[in-house]
Amino acid sequence: MEALIKKRQVPESIRSTAENGGNMELLTKLLRTQLSVVNKLADACSIKRSRAVQDKIGSFMAHEYLTDVTYRTINFSEFQAEYVIPNDLKYDGIILYLHGGGYVSGDMQYAKGFGTVLAAENHIAVCCAAYRLAPEHIYPAALEDAVQAYRYLMNNGYSPDKIALCGESAGGGLVFSLALKLKEEQLPMPCGIIAVSPWSDLSMSGISYEENREKDPSMTKKRLQFYAQCYTDQISSPFVSPLFGDLTGLPPSLIFVGGDEIMLSDSVCLHKKLCEYGCTSSLHVAEDMWHIYLLYGIKEAKEDRKIITEFLSEVFHGRT
């Protein structure tokens, strides 16, 4: 068992001298301000509007790397997935990436966003699954699609020790729910799990939901409650909230979370429970950062992107 928690601050050399958010670069501070403005309006947005905004974010994330990868569509009966293949492929393994969006937002355009970043920066193929969304498709639709995507990879040349899972926000919780479902169905585990700000407790019982309520510039409890209601009425099921599951036997996990986000407790408690169940887990808490900060391409997240690369090297090749 390995228990590792890292609280990271930005190096002094790139710190701003501003009184508030003094350890962030100016561009990051401006982004945080913009997120705060959007956050105040987001609770009133329709699902349709939220989906449109999220898809644009995906396009923005992928834009820098479009010439570095190629795409290939995979059609399932109920949903679509897509391979993202880097031009300079190094690994014979693959990442199954499950996107966030509160289980109500995120189509293939959004899923390919960070999936493209993962593929290009880590020289590894990524399978992005645009699982079915609520409220049109409630639980267990998303989990069923995740299992189907995993089975597809196993049936198409990837052994489990060559499959890593990655997800952010709702997708970060879903990768752990997927692992629990694989265990229930007696399917082999993937080689590792990477989760960015995982939503692992849809009951929102953690103390950070109150302690960080005024700090978080990007998410509100009200919005998460709405998402949870759209998705399921079984919020305490371990296949919905993996924090409440038996985590014995899960593969090594790498968890990132912002120190200011209301969902901080989801990551901290999940990491603690993984360690209690004898699993290897590494938790990185980025001070002053917000929900899924790692996806925004900010300078403060560069170190965390390198940690992902190192983790993938270790789980695929046993290198540290």
Report on the structure:
By secondary structure, the chain is an alpha/beta fold. It has one domain (2-10, 23-317): 3-Layer(aba) Sandwich (Rossmann fold). It has 9 helices and 9 strands. The chain has helices at residues 26-42, 47-63, 108-122, 141-155, 170-184, 208-211, 221-231, 264-276, 302-317; strands at 2-8, 69-75, 80-86, 94-98, 125-130, 163-168, 192-196, 253-258, 280-286. Mean pLDDT is 91; it is low at 7-22.
Q: How are the SSEs ordered, and which strands pair?
A:
Blueprint: E1 2-8, H1 26-42, H2 47-63, E2 69-75, E3 80-86, E4 94-98, H3 108-122, E5 125-130, H4 141-155, E6 163-168, H5 170-184, E7 192-196, H6 208-211, H7 221-231, E8 253-258, H8 264-276, E9 280-286, H9 302-317
Parallel strand pairs: 1-9, 4-5, 4-6, 6-7, 7-8, 8-9
Antiparallel strand pairs: 2-3, 3-5
Helix pairs in contact: 2-3, 4-5
Text of the CATH class: Alpha Beta
Taken in chain order, the helices and strands follow as EHHEEEHEHEHEHHEHEH
Question: CATH homologous superfamily - what is it?
Answer: Alpha/Beta hydrolase fold, catalytic domain
Global mean pLDDT: 91
The coarse overall form would be globular
Evaluate the radius of gyration.
18 Å
What is the CATH architecture descriptor?
Answer: 3-Layer(aba) Sandwich
- Counting structural domains, the number is 1
What is the CATH third-level topology name? Rossmann fold
Largest sheet, strands/sense/barrel: 9 strands, mixed
